[in-house]
Each structure stands twice: as structure tokens, then as C-alpha cells.
Design brief:
Oligomer: heterodimer
CATH architecture of one domain in chain A: 2-Layer Sandwich
Strand content of chain A: 15-25%
Distance between the termini of chain B: 51 Å
Largest interface: A-B, 34 and 32 residues
Shape of chain B: globular
Radius of gyration of chain A: 28 Å
CATH superfamily of one domain in chain A: Aldehyde oxidase/xanthine dehydrogenase, molybdopterin binding domain
Strand content of chain B: 15-25%
Shape of chain A: globular
CATH topology of one domain in chain B: Enolase-like, domain 1
Strand order of the largest sheet of chain B: 4-5-8-6-7
Distance between the termini of chain A: 46 Å
Chain lengths: ~750, ~325
């Protein structure tokens, strides 16, 4: 069944949908892209925070006497002298987002290990660090709670919070002829972009310029203005390039306020780059989660009940809800569904969104449960999913704008060779005699647009310039802007300049939710059209111009030239028209309203399917992911090249989620104890499987004029359950607690080595 | 990182004299030799080692790899791990050493890391590496935070109630299986220590890791020729495919004659407080047929004394499989 109320072929374009090298690639590959911590301002000094070595208790004393007298030290700030830092007020709508609301150094309470308790500022980074290490802090510690058991432990609310529900899930589950009921857990996972969080704060004349590692400069400005107690106009936030964020850099964290306060107090630019270990403490993480999934089904595999009860940990001072029920109500057809959730406080830093928040851990549980149900039914797991395809989004009754999950599954199965699957556990071998396991999982991620404003200029020098206060976090947003302007004007990409990552520019969207591309399409297209209209008016109205006496309505811009409609022989380079009219530039502004937070006619979601092969050598308990085939239905790819990067990178991240990533809290101190890249394991090149990505590329014209949805996050969803299913197929061991580790698999039967 | 002085050694005697000013050559030495710096600088950044003086020995002529008249191979203290691993001499005569080195760290680290520096590699125990915690190895008498804490990657053999840290090196496991000898210049001249006597079990003094005394400079390592017809092999098991310390590893040297094992060395990595030579496994093998049953018996013997911690009981079985697999593969080498 095709579910596409707007099925049309894609609008032809020379640049849209064409695999295009990033326009900023030369800057990045030659090391000339200026990242946040690359900013060196005259008179700049360095701040290094002192972090709490307890995770619960009270500061008794801070002795900075030795540090104060060390070489190069300019100041030591504690709660006594950091100056006023304010809490952000509640706001209406999607604005002033912040995860940790407590300003740094607010009081003497310690809520998590690594919380900032002081900050040293010195002439060099090493001096600041040495001073910070020389500051003696004494504490009245209390016993922390970092327990990983979550379901059934005390919550922030009297009971579980009700989520999506329909029918009578409890009764349907009780009556179901086939039942599956299990708990799935996933550990705290830490964002580890190679670029560390950093702030270069420059306070002068009552105004702050903050060079930030931000996925959302406009939000960052609004939050920091509130925290610093100044009008938003007195704060400028700049993020030219980001060494990735994965959600960890969406919202401001306390180091930003520390750096700004230090700059204010010293009246000098201050650089603060946090350390890798601080990355595990005070800038968010995906929380530890436990989820109970109950599936009821008929003997033919038709789902009759879905129950999802989950609890995620949050900090002592903020409520972060992971939203694991994001994809559950709409992925499959099922008359009876109930989702509940809760938060359990732990002495950990405040969690935050990590790539695919909610859906990624939620689908780890749901898709693992579907795999287990398929085994119980003795049914092919692909067939089970095809069988339960819904006609509409059953959570709200809306039609899907464009849903091709069945095609993802069937195309993926074909490309993978799924028909060759032998279901018996441990029955498949490779040429070297190692055991193979095959697994599959579906995935989904919401699609939407937020509000955006952009400006496009066409300049007398023959170049175009497009500006927007969004940012490129590495996914290729600079290039998308250039492609959009090129699409409307016909100018080649190398004649289009793109300026992003600065709150001085028209306010743009956050780089989150996989919605940046869809969000900016209407505004950039409209702004470009407005600029072109202005250009054509100029061409027609200039008394001495090339087209004096013409009507703008009879003219067009094509391949960067202005011409009477359909008469390329009479074309004139647009810069010539501006030059002859003595006009420096024509402008087009546009503002587009998003779907986010507004009622929509359709249910907008992207879909996909992952097919995974693992290789298992029981004689040495060695598990590796050898092959992944992924099919993605995420609208039309504006730039398939970085889009493919996104999915491939997400699959590798999924290997890490499934088998490696695990923030371990020391049970006694509460510290994230494996807070470095040797002990917190991420996949390395040698762990990368062979990856085959296919985009179905159905445009979704209900979301935007070019049919794009977004691909930043969906690729991670579903990888871990597909791997876990493959592991079960190879070993007979069902792992419901991530990551899947050697110790989980040692009980698997050993076959004779080859 | 604390302030320190960096001086350059002009010769071995000068270097020895400089380091002899430190009260110890062990944890907390006030003077340290620096070669590749891949481990020492790391520890200095963490303030886990805080020498006030570094003696740069990189200019000393101690980086050759050469065959000696008696058939043994001499590896200079400053021979880089990459050079040792890629040396034709090592690859042909001692494949186990080449394989072990190449299984460790990354290409970049191996290009810098020296043979002697690797011999003295510090544990990866997270509590040793963080001054916020009690650690008897770093701060004697303060206690052991790893017992009952994060100890998945720590030792199950040779530990004490004072320290359960594991030796993280791959190279040293191979050198154990190869009966290497460590040559030292000290204040009282030169001496040689068999690697079997070089490392100290933690006991009640985990801060003392080797027999090195103030002033001692390792100048080279010698590896005797293997008995003719011996095979050698290194197998390393870990979570990810590269750039991770061993959860369990095995170095094997094996020679069979007329269906019986004549010469065997079994050394284990990732499980011992020191690079772990398993005499128990060797005793179970010598004179017996190289078959699966005997390999399993050897593995059982090797791990009989294992004392797993709260998170690493799985290492007992993993190490056994590693031993069986390595012996099996070594026996099949043509």
C-alpha cells in the first residue's frame, strides 16, 4: 500500500537532488575554517573551571590562597564573587531553551560530580589550569544515588505520566493469544564530538560577543541575555563552524555563563574550553533508561496491544524527559496502545537530547520486542512488520504526508539478500566458518519545519549572498543554502556566498530535530524570488539600462543572467544591470512560518529499515558487525552526498550504541568514571561495517516546495535493535540491556573452531 | 601539569647520574627519563606523575635492532614500537612480538612509543589516573578505589587486597613468552635482569612495579633465539576492533616434536597485575600432545588462581578461550 497523498515526480533542477561537494570543504580540509576555540582576541585570557569531586553534598570551604599567588593568575571566582547570574524565566512556545537552569556557582550545593564550584582565570591556559588544580575545596558529602535501576524506583511525580493511548491496552494484552513482555535498558550515553565545548567571551561597552560551540545561536543569545541580565540586543552569539554536536550543543551549558561572567568581571576577552572529562559531566548526556514493552498479538501476527512504560533518569535539579514514546504510536497498526513514563532523580548532570532523542532509545525497545515477538510467532520479522502496516497515523487519525516503510523493508530485504536467511539459531556461516547472524529493524523520525527568516542579496560584483542566523553543525547546511539560491537564480555555487552562525543575521532555526533543511527552504526560496523580482524591476526601470522600457513581468532571471522571457540571446549578466544603474545590491527578505507547534493536516514522519549482519566467533567470543543495508524514506534529498554521510555516520554510531557506549557512574563517588576516549568506547575505523544506503527519495511536497524532510537523526534509530536481533540469530542469546558485551555472550554455545 | 625542567642527556652515564638524584625510580620519581612520552606526558597532564626534571634520552644511541653472534636479537631501549614491529628480524624470528606491538595503541602512538617506555607502561586503572580517588599505587596507603568500583578492565591474577590494577602492555606479554632479558645501566654499572624477575607483584607495595633503582636506565632488551622449529603467536581479545587495551590476550611460543610439546611458553595480557607468564599452563603442556583437550587443561591451570572482581568475572572464561585459541592456532602454523 502506497501512502502518499502528494505523490508526484520531483521538480527538475540542476542543483537540487544533485550530489554536491560541501562548499566549505576546502576551508575544512585545509585547516582554515575558524572554529570557536580558534578565536584569539587581543588581550584574551583563559578560564579553567574547578569541578566538584563529590556528586552530592555541600561546599564547606574554598581556599584559593595558593592559586591566587601563582604565576599569571588574574582572578579566582566562586559563588561569592562571580557576580549576578540569573535563572531564565518560563517562556511560551519554543524559545529560551535551556537544560540546566541553575546558573553556575549559584550556591554551595553540589548536585552532581563535575559541577562547577569555582573558576580560575590566568594569562595562559596552563596557568589557569594549574591554578584551578591548586584551589582546595572541602565538602560535606552525602551518599549519592546513581543507581541504574529505574523502573519501580521513586519518581518525580506520584505516578507514571500518561502518554499516547487508544483502546484498552491492558485488557487487550491480557486477552492476547500471543504475548511478549520484557524490560529493555540502555545506559547513559555521552556526546563525544571531537570539538570540545568552548566559549570565547568578549565583554565591552556593556555588550557581550560570545563565540560559542552552539547548534542554536539565536536561542543561545536569548538564554545568555536572560542569564546575564541584559537585553538580547546586547548579546551577539557566533558559531561559524561546529566540530559536531549530536544534540549536546543545542542548548547553553553553564561554562558559557562562566566565561561571560569572567569577561565581564575582568573587562577582557576570556576563552574557556572544557576538557574531555568535563564533556561527560556538565554538558548533558542521553539518560539511562528502562522500558517495559508488552506486545499482544493474534496467532497470525496481527498486533492487538502495545504497552510501553519507561523511566529515564534525570538530574536532581532539572526535569529532562527522553520521550521514548515518540515513534511507538504510529509505527504499527494496533487498536490498543498505552504509553506511560516517569523521571527518576539521580546525582548526575542534567541529561539532554542526543541524536534522535526519544525515538532512538524508544525504538531500541519496541523493535527488539517486535523481533522477539516474531521469534515467538515463528514468523519472519520482515513479514511481521509488513503485516502491521497502518493506513493512517493511528495516534491522531491523520493521513501520513508520505510513508513508504513497506518499500524500505522490501527494497532492503532484496538488497541484503534476506530471502537466503536460515532462521535456525547459529545455522549460518561465512566462508571462514564464523557464525553469521542477521537482524532487521524499522525506524522512524518526525519531520517538521520551524520558523525562519533569511535575506538574499544580488550584488553588483555578480555574486549572491544569503544570510541566516542558523548554523552549519557539519551536516552541510552552508551548501544547502547555496543550492537553494542557485536553484532560483541559476547562479553557479561558486558565485554564492553563505553567511550563517551569527545572531546579527536574520533569525534562523536551531540545528536540531533534523528540520533545518526543510525549515529554511521556504524562506530562502522566497527571499531569492524577492531579490530576483527587485532585480527585474531595476532592470526594467533604469532609464539608461539594458532593458529600458520593458516590464519586469516580461523578464526573467536564468543561469545568472537577466533576459526577456525565453530570449537568452538578449541576456545580460545581472551584475551589469546593477552596475549600470549604480546600485550596489538588490535585496530579498523572507520569513516563513513552520509547522512546529501548529496544527497540521498530515502526520509528517520519515521512515527506514536496517538489515544487519553480524559475525560471531564463539571460540574467542568475538562479535563484529560486518554488513548493514539501510533504506531511508526521508523525502527528497536536496544534497544526496552529505545526506549519505549522515546515514552512514549514524549507522556507525549505532554500532557504538549497540556494542560499546556506556557512561559508567562510580557507585560511591557518582563520577562518570570512564570519562575519556580510551575507556568510553566508540567505534573506530576497524569497527565500521560495510554500509549500503539507499534513499527512496519520494518528495514530500506537503512539508515544503522541494519535498525535503531531513536525515540527521533517523539513521541511528533502529540500528541497535537490528544488531541485537542479529546477535540472537547467531548466538541464541537475547540481550535486552545495552551495550551488548562479551560477558553477555560467553554463555552462547561454542562450536568447534574452524 | 606542574612546572618541570627539561634537560638533554649527553650520554648514558650522564642520564644515570641525573636520575639517581631522585629518591626512587618508581611511582612519584622526581626525575624521569623521557623517550616517546606517550605515557609519561599523559600521566603528567593528569598530575599523576609530577617530576620536577625530565631527562630527554632521545639523543642517546640506543635505538638499533640487531642480531648478536649468539643468535639473539638486541633491541635498543629507544627503538620505536613501529620500527620493532616492522623489523624483518623481528617479524621472521619473533612474530609474536611484532603481532603484539601492532595490536596495541594506534599507528601514531607506536611511531613515538619506545621499547623501554613500553616496558614501564602504567596501568589504565581509572582510579590510578585520577587524583580525586584513593589509590595505593599512586598514593601509598590511601586505599584501593577499584575494589568494588569500576574494575571491568583490571586484573584477576597476581593482585592483592591493596591493588588490582592490570598491566596494559601487549609488547611485554610477548617479551615474557620470549624469555627476554632487560639490560640496565645504573649507578653501580651494568646489569641484566630476566624479564621474569623484572616486574614486582603489587603485594603491599603496589607503587613499586619493577626492580629499577634510582639512576637505572634500561639500555636494551635481548631476546634469545627460539628453539629451532618453534612457532609463536599473539592473540588479543577486546570489545572493539582496534585502539583498546586487552580484556585478555595470549602470547604463545610452541615447539612440538614427534607429536609431543617439547617447548612452550604461555604468557597472558589484560588479566595480570604484571605481564603474566603462566608456568601452570606450560607445565600442563610440556610432554603432552598438542590437542584441544590438553589446551583446555592448560587454560584451566592458568586461571586456577584467578581472583575476579565485581565486574570482571567474565575474564576468567575469556582468558581460557584466548589460551585455547592461541595454542590451537599456533599448533596449526605451518
Amino acid at each position: 500500500m502506497e501512502q502518499d497523498s502528494n505523490a508526484q515526480t520531483a521538480t527538475p533542477s540542476k542543483v537540487i537532488g544533485v550530489a554536491t561537494q560541501r562548499i566549505d570543504a576546502p576551508l575544512k580540509t585545509t585547516g582554515t575554517a575558524v572554529y570557536t576555540s580558534d578565536h584569539h582576541l587581543p588581550g584574551m585570557v583563559y578560564a579553567w573551571p574547578v569541578t566538584a569531586t563529590i556528586s552530592r553534598g555541600t561546599i564547606l570551604s574554598v581556599d584559593a590562597s595558593e592559586a591566587q599567588s601563582m604565576p599569571g593568575v588574574l582572578a579566582v571566582y566562586t559563588h561569592k564573587n562571580i557576580g549576578p547570574l540569573y535563572r531564565t524565566p518560563p517562556t511560551v512556545g519554543f524559545s529560551m531553551r535551556q537544560q540546566e537552569h541553575r546558573p553556575p556557582l549559584e550556591n554551595l550545593e553540589v548536585y552532581y560530580y563535575g559541577q562547577y564550584v569555582a573558576v580560575a582565570v590566568a594569562q595562559t591556559m596552563e596557568q589557569a589550569r594549574a591554578a584551578a588544580e591548586a584551589i582546595k575545596v572541602t565538602y560535606q558529602p552525602e551518599t549519592p544515588n546513581v543507581a541504574t535501576k529505574l523502573l519501580g524506583t521513586p519518581l518525580t511525580t506520584p505516578g507514571m505520566h500518561p502518554g499516547s493511548h487508544r483502546g484498552d491496552a491492558a485488557a487487550a494484552f491480557a486477552q492476547a493469544p500471543v504475548k511478549h513482555d520484557a524490560v529493555y535498558s540502555s545506559p547513559a550515553e555521552t556526546h563525544n564530538p571531537i570539538e570540545l565545548h568552548a566559549t570565547v567571551a568578549d565583554y565591552r561597552d556593556g555588550k557581550y560577543t560570545l563565540y560559542e560551540t552552539s547548534q542554536a545561536v539565536v536561542n543561545h543569545r536569548d538564554v545568555m541575555a536572560a542569564v546575564l541580565g541584559v537585553p538580547p540586543g546586547n548579546v551577539r552569539v557566533i558559531t561559524r563552524f561546529l566540530g559536531s554536536g549530536f544534540g549536546g550543543k543545542l542548548w547553553p551549558w553553564p561554562h558559557s555563563a562562566l566565561a561571560a561572567a569572567c569577561s565581564h568581571n575582568l573587562q577582557r576577552p576570556v576563552k574557556l574550553v572544557i576538557s574531555r572529562s568535563m564533556m561527560f559531566e556538565s554538558v548533558g548526556h542521553r539518560p539511562a533508561i528502562e522500558q517495559q514493552i508488552q506486545l499482544g498479538a493474534e496467532t497470525n501476527g496481527k498486533l492487538t496491544a502495545i504497552v510501553q512504560n519507561y523511566v529515564n533518569h534525570t538530574s536532581m535539579i532539572d526535569d529532562y524527559a527522553e520521550g521514548c514514546g515518540e515513534a511507538t504510536p504510529l509505527l504499527y497498526s494496533c487498536a490498543n496502545l498505552k504509553i506511560t513514563s516517569g523521571l527518576a532523580r539521580r546525582n548526575v548532570g542534567t541529561p539532554t537530547a542526543m541524536r534522535g532523542p526519544g525515538a532512538v532509545p524508544g525504538l531500541w525497545a519496541l523493535e527488539s520486542a517486535m523481533d522477539e515477538l516474531a521469534w515467538q510467532l515463528k514468523m519472519d520479522p520482515v513479514q511481521l512488520r509488513l503485516l502491521n502496516e497502518p493506513a493512517v497515523d493511528e495516534s491522531n487519525g491523520k493521513p501520513f504526508s508520505s510513508r513508504h516503510l513497506k518499500e524500505c523493508l522490501t527494497v532492503g530485504a532484496e538488497k541484503f539478500g534476506w530471502s537466503q536467511r536460515k532462521p535456525a539459531i547459529g545455522s549460518m556461516k561465512n566462508a571462514q566458518g564464523a557464525t553469521l547472524g542477521w537482524g532487521v529493524a524499522a525506524c522512524s523520525w518526525g519531520a517538521m519545519r520551524s520558523d525562519a527568516e533569511t535575506m538574499v542579496e544580488l550584488l553588483a560584483n555578480g555574486r549572491a549572498r544569503v544570510t541566516c542566523g542558523t548554523q552549519d553543525i557539519g551536516g552541510g547546511t552552508y551548501t544547502i543554502f547555496a543550492q537553494l539560491v542557485s536553484h532560483e537564480t541559476g547562479l553557479p555555487l561558486n558565485k554564492i556566498d553563505v553567511a550563517l552562525g551569527d545572531t546579527k543575521l536574520p533569525p534562523g532555526p536551531v540545528s536540531g530535530g533534523s528540520w533545518t533543511t526543510a525549515t529554511v527552504i521556504p524562506a530562502v526560496l522566497q527571499a531569492t524570488q524577492n531579490a530576483v523580482r527587485s532585480l527585474l524591476m531595476l532592470a526594467a526601470s533604469s532609464p539608461d539600462g539594458y532593458f529600458a522600457g520593458s516590464h519586469a513581468a516580461d523578464m526573467e532571471m536564468s543561469d545568472g543572467f537577466v533576459q526577456p522571457k525565453g530570449q537568452p540571446a538578449k541576456r545580460v549578466a545581472f551584475g551589469e544591470i546593477l552596475g549600470r544603474a549604480n546600485v550596489k545590491a538588490v535585496f530579498g527578505n523572507a520569513k516563513s512560518e513552520g509547522t512546529l507547534g501548529r496544527e497540521t493536516k498530515y502526520s509528517f514522519h520519515s521512515f527506514g529499515a536496517h538489515f544487519v549482519e553480524i559475525t560471531w566467533q564463539p571460540e574467542i567470543a568475538r562479535l563484529r558487525v560486518s554488513r548493514v543495508v539501510t533504506v531511508i524514506d526521508a523525502g527528497r534529498m536536496i544534497n544526496p552526498r552529505p545526506a549519505r554521510n549522515q546515514i552512514e555516520g549514524a549507522i556507525v554510531m549505532g554500532v557504538g550504541m549497540a556494542m560499546l557506549e556506556d557512561t559508567q557512574y562510580d557507585p560511591r563517588s557518582g563520577a562518570p568514571i570512564n570519562a575519556n576516549l580510551a575507556d568510553y568506547l566508540l567505534p573506530v575505523n576497524a569497527d565500521c561495517p560495510k554500509i549500503d544506503v539507499t534513499f527512496l527519495d519520494y518528495p514530500d511536497y506537503h512539508l515544503d516546495a522541494l519535498g525535503a524532510r531531513g536525515v540527521g537523526e533517523i539513521g541511528l534509530a533502529g540500528v541497535a535493535p537490528a544488531i541485537a536481533g542479529a546477535v540472537y540469530h547467531a548466538t541464541g542469546i537475547r540481550v535486552r540491556s545495552l551495550p551488548i558485551r562479551i560477558e553477555d555472550l560467553l554463555a552462547a554455545p561454542q562450536t568447534a573452531s574452524a | 601539569m606542574q612546572l618541570f625542567e627539561l634537560i638533554t642527556a649527553q650520554n648514558v652515564a650522564g642520564a644515570v647520574k641525573e636520575q639517581a638524584a631522585s629518591p626512587t625510580a618508581q611511582q612519584g620519581a622526581s626525575v624521569r627519563f623521557i623517550a616517546g612520552g606517550t605515557n609519561l606526558v599523559d600521566c603528567m597532564k593528569l598530575n599523576v606523575e609530577t617530576p620536577r626534571r625530565l631527562v630527554d634520552i632521545n639523543g642517546l644511541p640506543l635505538d638499533t635492532i640487531e642480531k648478536l653472534p649468539d643468535g639473539s636479537v638486541k633491541i635498543g631501549a629507544l627503538a620505536r614500537n613501529s620500527d620493532v614491529a616492522q623489523s624483518d628480524l623481528i617479524r621472521t624470528q619473533f612474530p609474536v612480538l611484532s603481532q603484539a606491538i601492532l595490536s596495541g595503541a594506534t599507528g601514531q602512538l607506536r611511531n613515538m612509543a619506545s621499547t623501554a617506555g613500553n616496558l614501564l607502561q602504567k596501568t589504565r586503572c581509572v582510579y590510578y589516573r585520577d587524583r580525586a580517588y584513593a589509590c595505593n599505587k599512586r598514593a601509598p596507603g590511601s586505599g584501593c578505589s577499584a575494589i568494588g568500583g569500576y574494575n571491568r578492565n583490571l586484573a584477576i591474577l597476581g593482585t592483592s587486597e591493596h591493588c588490582i590494577a592490570s598491566n596494559p602492555s601487549d609488547q611485554n606479554v610477548a617479551l615474557m613468552a620470549l624469555d627476554a632479558t632487560i639490560h640496565i645501566s645504573g649507578v653501580n654499572g651494568q646489569r641484566s635482569v630476566p624479564i621474569a624477575a623484572f616486574y614486582l607483584l603489587p603485594g603491599s607495595t603496589p607503587e613499586k612495579e619493577t626492580v629499577l633503582l634510582p639512576g637505572d636506565l634500561i639500555t636494551h632488551v635481548t631476546v634469545p633465539a627460539l628453539p629451532s622449529g618453534s612457532k609463536s603467536l599473539y592473540v588479543k581479545l577486546r570489545d572493539r576492533a582496534s585502539y583498546e587495551f586487552a580484556l585478555a590476550s595470549t602470547a604463545v611460543v610452541l615447539k612440538t616434536r614427534q607429536g609431543k610439546i617439547e617447548h612452550v611458553r604461555v604468557a597472558l595480557g589484560g588479566v595480570g597485575a604484571i605481564p603474566w607468564r603462566s608456568h601452570e599452563a606450560e607445565r600442563a603442556l610440556v610432554g603432552h600432545a598438542p590437542n584441544a583437550e590438553n589446551f583446555r587443561k592448560a587454560a584451566e591451570a592458568a586461571l586456577k588462581q584467578a581472583r575476579p572482581q565485581s565486574q570482571n568475572a567474565f575474564k576468567v572464561e575469556l582468558a581460557k578461550r584466548c589460551i585455547v585459541h592461541t595454542l590451537t592456532q599456533a599448533a596449526q602454523l605451518a
